[in-house]
Each structure stands twice: as C-alpha cells, then as structure tokens.
C-alpha cells in the first residue's frame, strides 16, 4: 500500500521476480493465464516516474515502460521481469508478443543489436541477442536471468518446431527441434524433443533417421514410452514384424510397471521448459497408450502376420480386460488404436477359427449376435436422395443425423451378419454341413433387411464403405452355403448360390471355380467346360483389379476370404482338359 518510490523499486522488482518464480516452482504445473504481479509492478514503475498507464494492456504497458523509463538502476530488474513476462507469454503460445518484447529489450540496450539476419528464426535471434543484465550481490536471485534466458530459448525453439510439425512444414520443424535438442532442459523434455524429431523424420519418409532419434529418446529417458510406441510404428512401416512385436511387448510390460505420473524432470530450477510447453499438438504426439490398446495391437499384428497361436492368446487377454471396465479407461476421442468392440470380438473369432478352435469361435460370435440384435431395425432403407441433401439446405442437419443413424445401423447389421458368417464356416470345419447351411442362411436373411433405393444398387460416398462390407459378407456367405450344399449332395441349390455370387462379384475366381464344379457334378460337363474356358481366358489382372476395388476390408473377414478359396483347382482343371481332349478326338 506504500506509494512507489524510485530508490526502493530495484528491491521491489527483484522481490517480485523471486516471488513469481517461487509461485511457479511451488505449483509445479504448467503456467496459465496472465501474471498480474508483473502488470502491477510496471504500473508502480510508471507511478514512481510520474507517468500513468492504467488503461493500457500488458504489451502496451511494456512498450511505454521500456521507452520512457531511463533510470539506470531500474534497467536490470526490468529486464529480468521482462524475461519472466516472456515465459508467461510462451506458455500461452503468444510467440509474436515474446518477439516484440525482446525487440524492445534489445533496442533499449542498443538500437543496432536487434537485427535478425536473413534465414534466421526471428524469435530465436531476438532471444539470443538479449544481453542478460548483471546480477548484484546485494539482491540475490532464486534463479539467474542467464539460466532463464537459456530456458526461454529452448522453449521457443520447441514450441515453434511443434507448430511447424503440425502445419506439415517438416524441414523447418526439423531444424527448430534440433535447435531445441541442443538447448537447456531436463532429461524428460530432451526425450520428448527427440521423440518429436523421430515423428517428424518419419513423416518426411526417413524411417531409419526416425529410429535413431527415437532410440536416443529412450537412452535419455526410458520412461518416455511414447517413443517406444513410435519405434513400433516405424518398424511396422518397414515391414519388420519381429522387431515391431518386440517393441510392443516391451511397451506393454513397461506400461504395467511404471505409473503414468512418473516423471524425470529436473528439481534444480523453479522455472523449467516443461512448464512452458504444453500445447495440444504435444499432448497428442506424446499420448500414453492404455495397456489394453497395446495388447490389441499385439493381437492384431499377430493375426495379420499369420501368428495364429500368439494372436489367440492376445485376443483372449484383451477380452478378459473388457470385464475390467475397459470402456471407462480408454479415450473415446478417436486417438485410440482400438476399433469398435464387436469388431474385436469378430477378429478374435477369426483367430480362433484359424487355430482350429471352432467351438470357441462360435461362442464368441454368439456374443456379438446377441448384443447387436436389438440395435438393428427390421427394414433398413438406404436412399440416394438422403445423401444428396445439400449442406446449406435447411434439412441438412436433420439429414446428417439420419445418415449417422443409418451408418450405425449398417455397422451393427454387418457385425451380426459377420457373426453368422463365421459360425457357418466354423460349423463347416466341424463337419456339420446342415448347421453350417442354417447359419449361412441366417446371414443372408439378415442382409435382406437392407433396401437400396435410387438408381439400382447405387453406392454413394457416405455409406459406400458399409455397403461394400455388406456385399462382401453376402458374397462369402453364398459361397459358403454353396460349398455345404455340395457336401450334402444338393448340387442344384449349390449352383444357384454360385450363380448369385457371380452376380454380386462378376469374375470372382472362387465363385467361378465352384460354379464349374457344381455344373460338373450335375453332369453338365459341356457347360462346365465352357465356363471354365471363359474364366481361364479372362485376364488375371482383371480379376485382381476387381478383387482390389474399394476400401480395405475389415480384418475380421480375412479368415472367411481364405476359407472361400477354391481348393481343387488343379484336379478340376485336369478333368476338364481330359474331357475337352476326348471331345476333340471324337470330333476328329
């Protein structure tokens, strides 16, 4: 409450500097908001000099103080307070304000020293150009301005590097992050910087360089587990599955041992880099995966790589985690690696089938079927006009909501139909052809719920992925049921299913081969030979192109695709060639 007096202001500003640092250090949390103490301190400086700045914002206040206050004894404490102000603004990502403040500080010292060379980063040049004021022995500081300058420089380089990384300017981001890595910071921040360098170089298409940065991050601080997560991602990109799985296994074990709150920050400084850098992009880049996400990735990668026994073990571990309230532990903001839970169940069923555990696969699929039954409408209309509603029209919002509901209903339908599909193939493997036919028929009956309106089976962009999956499930179910009809000697019914399969996917090699076999078994050998010649003469590239159309199919359909492959190609081809040869001799 005392009036401001020039002789006491150096001490007052130094006490304010130390007090603010103690406040920051004691909270040990990211700096937020404005430093009201600094604003009040500047007003007292102006008051002591007979000036007024009550109506000015903080930036204008700094400009007025540094331009009008020329008392020599106040320059050092004002510069130290300016460095603290820069820390607050850096924490708020107000990089322009920081550059302007250091421009004023450097100009106040020497008008010729505030120049930034071409090609240099302006903010970093400004911080580097700032001359640290000398410390007086009579006014001790709890953290030197020299250390504070180094921390500001590192934080500014790190923040700008993150901004450029988010913007996709990778060479600039790389340069700034490398500058930050050579700065003044704790081990955990250095590990974070190396992790960001690894992410940047990976996006630049330099996986080996990315691995070097990520390994450096783990050498500096092994508790920087996001680096280990990126290591696995890079090895996945390189196709080195063994090392990728090792990295994921290490990550899973480490997540189980180290509490998320563990940190290796330096205790020696009150103001630290980690208190200044807390942007959303950094939070996203360094997000700690939940152990269940890593367990799922292990299961998924093993299944994709054909390591069926390991995949089954990981999927069953994951399903047991579901009993522990997994949905409440994993973020639902789209950043999680987990797909929808029914898809995980279906992938587990696929793994169990490939491992020969058909009865277990049937049980898992029954869970999916029972959970989705009440979520599917009796009739699901997919109308062309719904998806042509313009976004600017009054009904666009309503149409968007209806579209979202239809997309969700189509997903639920696909999951349940896939459950029946898997059960059909599982019963077929168990030698129960009648039960297999029943499950395949349930799958096909489910798909009859979808009514496509408009110009035929028009797949519009918004629902195209869902419709493609449903069509593939229908194709696989028809092929599956047809094979079981053949096993039961019901060759005419099998022929109809294979003909319908080719209507859905003309040129499909499995459906075409089974069609030929059905005709052959019906003793319609001339037709079978004609169809065989027709499909044999079609270009393999055309079939491959047709098979690869659309988006990648869900992983849970992979085993069904394999089981639908025609297994008797060579014997059937020899039989038909012998028949054609004999027919040619008879003709001659």
TrEMBL record:
TPR repeats located where? 475-508
**Bacterial transcriptional activator domain boundaries:** 455-537
Identify the keywords attached in UniProt to this record, alphabetized.
Answer: Signal, TPR repeat
The Gene Ontology biological process terms listed for this entry are: interstrand cross-link repair
Q: Name one Pfam family in it.
A: BTAD
Q: Name one GO cellular component term.
A: Fanconi anaemia nuclear complex
InterPro entries in the record? BTAD, FANCG, TPR-like_helical_dom_sf, TPR_rpt
Domain of life according to the entry: Eukaryota
Signal peptide location: 1-26
Name it: FANCG protein
Native source species: Urocynchramus pylzowi
């Amino acid at each position: 409450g005392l009036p401001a007096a020039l002789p006491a202001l150096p001490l007052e500003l130094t006490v304010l500097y130390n007090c603010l640092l103690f406040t920051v250090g004691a909270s040990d949390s990211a700096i937020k908001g404005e430093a009201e103490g600094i604003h009040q301190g500047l007003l007292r400086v102006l008051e002591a000099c007979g000036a007024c700045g009550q109506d000015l914002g903080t930036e204008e206040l700094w400009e007025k103080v540094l331009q009008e206050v020329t008392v020599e004894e106040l320059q050092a404490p004002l510069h130290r307070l300016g460095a603290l102000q820069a820390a607050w603004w850096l924490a708020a990502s107000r990089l322009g304000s920081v550059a302007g403040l250091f421009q004023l500080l450097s100009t106040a010292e020497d008008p010729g020293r505030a120049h930034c060379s071409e090609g240099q980063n302006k903010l970093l040049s400004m911080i580097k150009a700032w001359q640290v004021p000398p410390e007086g022995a009579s006014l001790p500081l709890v953290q030197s301005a020299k250390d504070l300058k180094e921390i500001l420089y590192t934080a500014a380089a790190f923040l700008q590097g993150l901004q450029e990384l988010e913007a996709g300017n990778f060479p600039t981001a790389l340069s700034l992050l490398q500058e930050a890595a050579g700065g003044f910071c704790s081990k955990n921040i250095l590990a974070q910087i190396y992790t960001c360098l690894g992410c940047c170089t990976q996006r630049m298409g330099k996986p080996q360089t990315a691995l070097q940065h990520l390994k450096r991050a783990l050498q500096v601080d092994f508790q920087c587990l996001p680096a280990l997560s990126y290591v696995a991602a890079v090895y996945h990109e390189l196709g080195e599955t063994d090392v990728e799985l090792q990295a994921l296994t290490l990550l899973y074990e480490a997540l189980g041992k180290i509490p998320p709150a563990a940190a290796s920050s330096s205790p020696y400084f009150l103001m630290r880099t980690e208190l200044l850098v807390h942007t959303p992009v950094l939070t996203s880049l360094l997000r700690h995966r939940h152990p269940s996400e890593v367990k799922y990735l292990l299961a998924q990668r093993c299944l994709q790589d054909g390591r069926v026994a390991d995949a089954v073990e990981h999927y069953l571990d994951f399903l047991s985690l579901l009993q522990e309230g997994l949905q409440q532990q994993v973020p639902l903001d789209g950043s999680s690696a987990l797909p929808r839970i029914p898809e995980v169940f279906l992938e587990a069923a696929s793994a169990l089938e490939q491992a020969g555990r058909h009865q277990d696969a049937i049980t898992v699929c029954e869970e999916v079927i029972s959970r989705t039954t009440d979520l599917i409408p009796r009739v699901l209309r997919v109308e062309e006009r719904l998806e042509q509603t313009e976004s600017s029209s009054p009904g666009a919002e309503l149409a968007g909501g209806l579209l979202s509901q239809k997309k969700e209903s189509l997903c639920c339908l696909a999951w349940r139909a896939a459950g029946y599909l898997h059960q059909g193939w599982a019963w077929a493997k168990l030698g129960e052809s009648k039960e297999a036919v029943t499950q395949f028929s349930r799958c096909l009956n489910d798909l009859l719920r979808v009514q496509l309106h408009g110009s035929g089976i028009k797949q519009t962009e918004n629902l195209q992925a869902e419709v493609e999956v449903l069509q593939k499930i229908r194709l696989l179910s028809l092929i599956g049921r047809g094979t079981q009809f053949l096993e039961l000697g019901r060759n005419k019914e099998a022929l109809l299913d294979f003909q319908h399969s080719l209507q859905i996917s003309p040129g499909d090699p499995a459906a075409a081969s089974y069609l030929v076999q059905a005709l052959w078994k019906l003793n319609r050998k001339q037709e079978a030979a004609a169809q065989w010649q027709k499909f044999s003469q079609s270009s393999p590239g055309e079939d491959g192109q047709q098979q690869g159309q659309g988006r990648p199919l869900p992983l849970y359909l992979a085993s069904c695709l394999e089981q639908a492959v025609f297994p008797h190609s060579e014997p059937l081809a020899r039989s038909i060639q012998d028949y054609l040869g004999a027919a040619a001799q008879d003709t001659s």
